Amino acid sequence: MAFEIVDWSLGAGTVALSPLPNSEAELDVLRAWAPEVVVSLTSAAEMGVALAGLQGGDWDWRHCEIVDFGTPDAEFEAGWPEMSARLLRRLQAGGRVLVHCRGGCGRSGMVVLALMVASGEAPEAALQRLRARRPCAVETDAQLAWAIREEFGEKH
Question: Where are the alpha helices (DSSP H) in the chain?
Fold first, then answer.
């Protein structure tokens, strides 16, 4: 899958998802997009050489590993309320937040969808808006259930 940053307006800001930038040229594309926050959902092993570029960028870098095709573990869950609130505040203030996983589909789509729902979008409409630009977003039923569970009164 080619490196592409796909973004949407969310509040007064912009949220985006992308695959893992695997080269200096792809990191340059990320830098040009000018995120304020980059959320990496990949493991350090998946990131390989991209790790140094992501850690050393001109942005607030958050590493929150989720297993490929998986949903957040207990450690991610424990930090998610604070992180999602912080990301939503950034977005409401006009900020730019980029979320990536290896392919820019499942894990990143799940987290972007969760932010969209937490910001007040109806889950089905948010998923349609997400998949209109990134058809592979949110790859499993478990990822979808995690992303929209606020709709059922479960806070994450």
Answer: 24-33, 44-47, 50-55, 74-92, 106-118, 123-133, 141-148
The CATH code of the domain that includes 65 is 3.90.190.10
- The answer to whether position 1 is within a domain reads no
For 94-115, write each residue's pLDDT tens digit. Answer: 999 999 999 999 999 999 999 9
pTM value is: 0.93
118 domain residue, yes or no: yes
What are the percentages of helix, strand and coil residues in the chain, rounded to 5?
50, 15, 35
Q: Note whether 87 and 97 are within 8 A (CB).
A: yes
Whether the Cβ atoms of residue 24 and residue 101 lie closer than 8 Å to each other? no
pLDDT band at 1 (very low <50, low <70, confident <90, very high): low
Angle subtended at Cα 55 by Cα 32 and Cα 102, rounded to the nearest 5 degrees: 75
d(C-alpha 139, C-alpha 105), whole Å: 7
CA proximity to 93, closest of 119, 111, 112: 119
